[in-house]
Design brief:
Blueprint: H1 3-35, H2 48-68, H3 73-94, H4 101-133
Helix pairs in contact: 1-2, 2-3, 2-4, 3-4
Length: 134
């Protein structure tokens, strides 16, 4: 193997490792934020902004995971849904946070949007490559 090719491969591997470490740190940050006590906050019965934050967090984390582990897309999607359920269960268990089915639904919306966007992008890229070859 030419040394330039080896360098490119090593840089690619390093980039993927850095991106994976970043993903794990983001997952840890979301977990901490989800379980952190919120003092003196009066929560409305249904807050659209809270649901949007859930959906956005799960779009980003799921999309990132799908890009990092493309051959394990179903595992990533199911894992993110389980992670959302786990956060809600942990919020229920700690006592100072509230578990809500609506939060889990917002998480599922985020996971679904990420899966559709990444899948659509991959199909587009595949068709683009097919056109460039022909």
């Amino acid at each position: 193997m030419h040394s330039g090719c080896l360098t490119t491969v090593l840089i690619g591997v390093l980039e993927v490792r850095v991106m994976r470490v970043g993903w794990y740190l983001a997952m840890a940050a979301v977990t901490v934020l989800a379980l952190m006590p919120i003092e003196h906050l009066q929560l409305p019965v249904f807050d659209w902004w809270d649901k949007a934050q859930h959906a956005l967090a799960f779009v980003v984390l799921t999309g990132w995971g799908l890009l990092l582990w493309p051959v394990h897309a179903l595992r990533v999607v199911l894992g993110m849904l389980a992670y959302g359920a786990g956060i809600e269960a942990a919020q229920w268990a700690v006592g100072w946070r509230f578990a809500e089915w609506a939060d889990l639904a917002a998480d599922a919306v985020g996971v679904s949007v990420a899966w559709m966007v990444v899948s659509g992008w991959r199909r587009f890229q595949g068709r683009k490559q097919e056109r460039s070859v022909s």
